[in-house]
Amino acid sequence: MIAPPHRLVVPTTARPSEPAADGRAVVVGGSLQRDLFRLGVVPCAAVALALTAWFTHSRLDTLEGAFNAEGQAVARQVAAMSDLSLYAGDLPALQNVANAAQRGGQVTRVEISNSAGVYVTAGSKAAPVGHLRMFTAPVTLREASRASAFAPEGATAAGDKPIGLVQVFRDTTGYARERTRSLMAGIGIAMIALIAAWAWVRHTARAVAQPLRRISRTVAALEAGRFEARCNVVARGAKAPADGEDDDARRVQHEFAHLAHDINRLAERLQRNRQQSEEQVRAATAVALQRMAEAEQASLSRARFLAAASHDLRQPLHAMGLFIDGLLPTASEAQRPAVLRLQEGAGFMSLLLDDLLEISRLDAQVLTPAIGNVSLAMLFDQLGAQHAARAASLQVRLVWRDGGLAVRSDPALLLRIIGNLVGNAITHTGAEGTVLVAARRRAGQVRIEVRDNGVGIAPIHQARIFEEFYQVANTERDRRQGFGLGLAICARIAALLGTRIGLRSALQAGSTFSLELPEADPRDVQRPSPAPVASSPLAGLRCLVVDDDPAILDATRALLEQWDCEVECVASGSEAMRRLAAPEVHFDVLLCDLQLADAEDGMEVIEAARRLQPDALAVLVSGATGPEVLQRLRQGGVLLLTKPVAPAKLRALLSTRRAGRTG
């Protein structure tokens, strides 16, 4: 049987239909033993039935011929014996011939007659007509009987013309029984042949199917990953290692033994390969775990370093900034350039620490975005006011297209992301370039794009520009071009807002940064609150400063007294709480460090100030940037100034306090 193209007919014992490895269908039949049995029995049965039918038919033809020949011989014999008697009309003699023929037992009835009216019969008429078969023979005169001397008076010469007719009847009952016995014998022989063929084919099928079942089970075990499975199939005449197996299963063809041996070798190779693979996987896993542990340790070390460096560096940097701002108004013309350089250096250090703090806060997930409806027109107006002067100085054309759209986002964080992207685009566009900031609707989202026609970014750098401290065009690490943290911070903020920053760029073809945000109805955007009243002078503002660093206390005192504030400085939290509890003392502002000497906690001072003097503005000043600290401050709702505090930021905060009091 030839299977149709792309289909494979596989008789098997256990497996259902399943797709082949190359995608072609595999039609799975029934039992292999049943198929082999069918293939063996059908030809044997056909041959046995054909031979039995042929021999039975020959036997029946022989019986038929013998029965007819015997009846015809009796009829001829009676005709030969009755010619003279019939010719002479001797009825007694004819009767004797008929009786003798009937008594011979070969015929049941005999009739002799002629055209002259002679009729002699012998035998019974009781037998059914359907069980009788008639045989006839003509009665003719023999040569010796033709002499006219012996002819009766009036007789003529007979010649070859019949002078009468003999009819003998034979009973077919015995013949039918013989035919039936012959048929039954043929059927019996056919059944014996079929049974013998069935037994032989069954024996052969079992001898073939049993090793194939073992091979199939072994292959299935290998497919399931049990590579220790083996085929217990041996060659003809050998003994299987397992006890209790019959001889048929142990005496199989050498081909199956060779196939089983090949499968066993394959299983051994697979087992060795799996052991090697497992060893390699274990080794690779151990290396990966070690590297993960090293990476986690490095991350923890970086976090600890950032926290420690932020706190330890912000303390002197904060004091340095205060001292520099205090020296600047009184510096001479010769001293002023050096003081300005010191101020610039302190400013760069402050920016770097601020960026590190921002990344630490984002990694600590202490920022919770305040999602609302943001008008892109107002957002672009703010960005235009921030970057217009710098763009004009670099001869870069800024184009804003808000499309009258609004988005759902945190306005401050979104302003930070787009502002950083616009600033980078202005930097890398070049003179007489163009930066386009556009928004367009896209399937229920608003896509904001920042495009420039600058030098572009090579594909090799595009995957790394969002990493910390990675800058494409600042190999000299010029701090005036930034520190390489802006895009890293923007990527983290975008993830916090539930989006991501996309990039499409090519060398000399410009760059396009984009992000998608949910669309909002511009009519639902709240108008900004009116601008606060102008800051009033700080003269007479009573301030309590708490810090365990004498340099910071001296610098803060000098700066605040320069602003005509009334300043009182203490070095411990217990002393600060005593001053806050004094009934005759009232403070407008409390500036307290977080980590004080003798393991005192600035949060306790803040809580005491809220309880003892609730009208005072309690501000926590700290250089700590660890995730635990930031989480704690956020949960406590504490107003935080991160060291080093820019004097302008501190003055703006105190000015709002003074404005609140005068209002």
TrEMBL record:
Domain Response regulatory: 542-658
Known catalytic reactions: ATP + protein L-histidine = ADP + protein N-phospho-L-histidine
Keywords assigned by UniProt, alphabetized: Coiled coil, Kinase, Membrane, Phosphoprotein, Transferase, Transmembrane, Transmembrane helix
EC number: 2.7.13.3
Modified residues (4-aspartylphosphate): 593
Domain HAMP: 206-275
Superkingdom of origin organism: Bacteria
Subcellular location: Membrane
Class in the EC hierarchy, top level: transferase
Transmembrane intervals: 36-55, 183-201
PANTHER family in the record: HISTIDINE KINASE (PTHR43047:SF9), TWO-COMPONENT HISTIDINE PROTEIN KINASE (PTHR43047)
Name listed for the protein in its UniProt record: histidine kinase
